[in-house]
Amino acid sequence: MNAPDVALEKPRASDRLIRLLKVRVWLGEIIRPNEVQATLFWAGVVGFLGAWSSILFRLASDFLNFVFTQKHGGYAAGFAALGWWQRLLIPTMGGLLAGFSLLLATRISSKSSTDYMEAVVLGDGSVPVRISLIKSLSALFSIASGASIGREGPLVQLSAMIASALGRIIKLPIPRRRLIVACGAAAGIASAYNAPIAGSLFVAEIVLGSMAMESFGPLVFASVVATMTVRQFFGPDALYKTAEFSLNSAWEILPYCLLGIICGVSGPVFLRGLKLSEKVFELSKLPLPLRLAAGGLGVGLLAMLHPEVCGNGYTLAQSILRGDWVWKSLLYILVLKLLATASTFGSGAVGGVFTPTLCVGASLGYIYGAGVSHVWHATALSQGAMALVGMAAFLAATTHAPIMAILMVFELTLDYQIILPLMLCCVIAYYTSLGFEKKSIYSDSLKRKGGGLFEQQMASLRVASLMKENPASVLVTASFEQVAQNFVTNRFNYLYVTDKDSHFAGAISLHDIKNYLNQPEIANIVTARDLVLDEFVTITPEVSLAEALKTFSQHEGERIPVVDNDQKLIGSISKTDLILSLAGSTAKETAEAA
Amino acid sequence: MKISCADVLKSAVFNLNLEAEQYRPAIHELVHSMNGDNRMLDTEGFRQAVLLREDESPTALSSGVSFPHARTPCVSDIVLAVGRSQKGIASDNGPIRLLFLIGTPKTKIQEYLMVLGFLARNVKQAATYEALVRADTPEAILKCFGVSGT
Predict the structure, then answer these.
(1) What is the pLDDT of residues A115-128, one digit of tens each?
(2) Beta carbons of A469 and A532 less than 8 angstroms apart
(3) What's the complex ipTM?
């Protein structure tokens, strides 16, 4: 018998593989990557794509507006240069085209909702692509033809739709698909308003109803990437330019308190006005194209009197913040603008009411500021500053999201001096509005769409709904090299082991083997069976998510294997997905309670 | 309690004159020699577990060494039996001169890998292998692994 020849004992676990696995273990211990961190990466991708959808939509609506009006330089200015019949005809025709587009969307599917909020809070994170695109086309016709509605609505919708499609392509489980759609919405808002903080807070505060870092981190990431992308295209300037503001005396804060109350009362009135308008149009029983055309006709009639009512109100709000108005004229425009917005929104046009809300709030603040100056001659209060604070307070009163409103207006103007009255006024407006209206502009929409769905979904929430099929696994006879290879190519800490008939045999812990990876001698001797923890916790697909959470509380791993009644390995469920799913349920409960 | 490889070796059972000429009987013979060890809870169960493991993936190496083993509840702690055949035991991978039979409780995966790695690393060295084949007492075997006394 010869002495053992080392060269003849060819180790099956190659040195390169062992080195790779050691690096993987080292990285794993240093940064401990998990599924939330992977979601962060996809949130960045969603932010970038959402920003480009925003850029393209804005360019498309500007181009279509030029086609309609043959004028450049803003919708209101374009309409001001047109004759009376054109001011009447263009919004009507735009409404008709928007209505036909919407009709086409309802013909394709009358049941599936394209609402991203519904997809995030009540649904499975699916925003249908075809119908969303047709609805965006409808919004494009409305917006470009001067309807008094914001383009931020379709911008957010498109961004959320792209995120949803991406989530489906990369096969994200439902809770994280919902989160990625929320990231798309945040990116849409951030890119529409050049406002990354407000973008993430809007979705966290209104849509998710949670500031948990599992969801807030990806929202912030998507918003920042979206804003950076849009800034490369449109520049870094604040969306609204304001006059300089300074608080000369502590007493000057008092008028702002009163402005908060005024906005807190008028916010719910504004919402009820919009709802009333919706009911009036519904009662008319007009077919969809004619209904939207009637809404456009309403705007056209008002535009004949004053073209400033056209568009989302951005130009008007800018001129108010600059202090260009006499209060009586502005009061007249405010009434017309409210009617135009009610006419557009009530007819069912696709779009957002965010920018019109800012415009109405700015008008209220400005007119109130004029009144204060009239009564209190000694004060140096600026009407522009009042308009700015009114803008935020009115937003807080309608959205029931005061933090978002404060930061949104701060980001829109990048004026920090205004922050004290801004914060105070928003909080007062929010609490005042709660006394009149428990529902915000958004929770109302969710309530209407979600009735009964919540209980139905809760009843169906089982492990099966979150299970990822075909988890990585090895046979009990697998060599040490195969085990190591699986740990290199997958990021988890437990590798599942099955017998040849797929029966679950246990799991191998990376922790158990990591110190022996540099010993090729044992690679020839050790198999998966020698390493397997055979009393490993499992779960079945029909178990409720609440039960699954209890199981996770007794298990230190990120995933639990899912087995069928024959103990065959059929999938795995991740703790992150479970927590996100249960967090989503909390948001649903909030929506239901609203 | 943390154990060391030296502890496992010191508490090992030695059979330096295995009579069996075939692989499976040799394992049986070595298992039998562990009968008196109070950490052995079920000798027959342990033997079956080792043979089952061998059937699944043989541990006999072409270098003349074999590491039959089982993780099984039939032992209360890590047990080791060292067997040596003067003539060589026939196996699918050529004649085997040294057998290291290891039994490990289900829970002690890291300790099992530690002992197995220690033995395999040492036996891989030609000088150690030669010394083990020539050793005529358990103390001499221990000395080959750098462990003194029993």
Answers:
(1) 667 666 656 677 88
(2) no
(3) 0.87
